[in-house]
Amino acid sequence: MYRFLYWAVLRHLPAEATHNVAFALLRAWMAIPGMKALSRKLLLPRGQAVHAMGLTFASPLIMAAGFDKNATGYRALLALGFGGVEVGTVTARAQPGNPKPRLFRLHRDHALLNRMGFNNHGAAAAALRLRGPRTGVVGVNIGKTKAVDEAEAPADYAASARAVAAVADYLVINVSSPNTPGLRALQGTAPLRAIIVAVRAAVADVRATPLPLLVKIAPDLADEDVDAIADLALETALDGLIATNTTISREGLRTDAATVAAMGAGGISGAPVADRSLAVLRRLRARVSDRVTLIAAGGITAENANERLAAGAHLLQIYTEFIYRGPLTARRLVRALRT
What is the pLDDT of residues 172-227, one digit of tens each? Predict the structure, then answer.
C-alpha cells in the first residue's frame, strides 16, 4: 500500500515538505494512547537483540541521522521496530541550513540527493527533547556549526557534546557531510584527533560514566585515508566507526546527467553509494578487526543487509530505504537477517 501511495502521489510532491508532513503524521499516530507499545510489540522481531559498545539494541537496525534532526520523533521511530535511532545532526548553534530546495529524489536510482546543511534547532534544544524514559537506544550525531572555522571546530564540537552528553546513549562525530564548507577536511588525522580529544573532555565534564564515541566517515575517502582513520580509531580508543555518509560522486547513475546537474550540489544516498560503502566497511574490518564496533550505512536493503553483516558490521543504519519502502521497512529488513 505504501509503495502504491509513494509512486502514485508522494513522489510528485516536494521531497522536503513531504518528509515533514509524513513525519508529523507518524508522530501524531504514535501519540494515540497505547499505539507505541502495540506497534513495538507487532513490529519488533524477537530474538534479534545486539550487544555493542556496552549497549543493548533490540534489533540490529538503526534509523540513521538526518531523519529526526531535532529529536522530535525518535520514540515513534523506535515503535516501528528500530533497535536505535540516531538523532541530528545537531550543531552547537541553531542554524537554518542551506537555501531550499535542498532535497531531491532520484527515483530511477532508488536514491536521494541532499544539501540540507545541518539545519537544526541546536544541541541544547535536542537535549531537552531527549529527557525522560524511552524504549530503545538513542544516539546523537553532532556536526560543525557553519559559521565556525577549522581552528574553532574542536571547541564547537565540544559545546555540542557538552549539551547532549547527559541524555545520549552514544555520540557520533560527523566530519563527513559534503554540505558544510570545509567539514570533510576535518577527516584528516590531526584535526580529527583534536576534535576527539575535545569531545571526550566535554563529555567528562558532564557525566562520570563512559559515553560511547563514534566517527562517521565519507565513502569518497581514498583507501589510504580510510586506513589512517582506522588507525586513529585504535590510537584514540574510539568505540565505533560508521561507514559511510553520502557520496559526492555522480558516476554510474541511471538518472540522466542533465537532471542531476539541475539538482545541483549535494550528497547522494541510497543504492549508488552501496558498493563503495561496502568496500570501505571491508577495509575498516581488515584494519581494526573486532576492536572497534562498525556500523554499516549506505544503500542497505533487505536484499543486501546480510552481506554487510558478513563483511564485519555489528549494526546497520538506513534512511533512504525507509523513504522508498515506508513504515514497515524496519520489520521487513530485520526479518531478512540471519539469526
Answer: 999 988 878 787 888 888 999 999 999 999 999 999 999 999 999 999 999 999 99
List CB contacts of 27: < 8 A, sequence separation 6 or more.
72, 73, 76
Phi-psi region of 173 (alpha: psi -120 to 50; beta: other; left: phi over 0): beta
List, for residues 264-288, the tens digit of each pLDDT value. Answer: 999 999 999 999 999 999 999 999 9
Catalytic residue chosen out of the listed positions 39, 59, 160, 177: 177
Q: How many CB atoms lie within 10 A of CB 189?
A: 14
Residue 250 half-sphere exposure, CB side, CA atoms within 13 Å?
A: 13
Helix (H) or strand (E) holding 2: helix 2-8
Beta-strand relationship, 55-57 and 50-52: antiparallel
> What is the band of 8 on the pLDDT scale with cuts at 50, 70, 90?
low
Does the global pTM surpass 0.85? Answer: yes
Burial of 129 (0-12, 13-18, 19+ CB in 10 A): middle
- Of 195, 203, 214, the C-alpha closest to 155 is 195
Q: Residue 339: its pLDDT value, please? A: 47
What would the DSSP string read from start to end of 246-310? -B---TT-SS-HHHHHHH-S-EEEEGGGHHHHHHHHHHHHHHHTTSSEEEEESS--TTTHHHHHH
Q: How long is the chain? A: 339
- DSSP calls for 205-225: HH-SS---EEEEE-TTS-HHH
Tell me if residue 160 is catalytic.
no
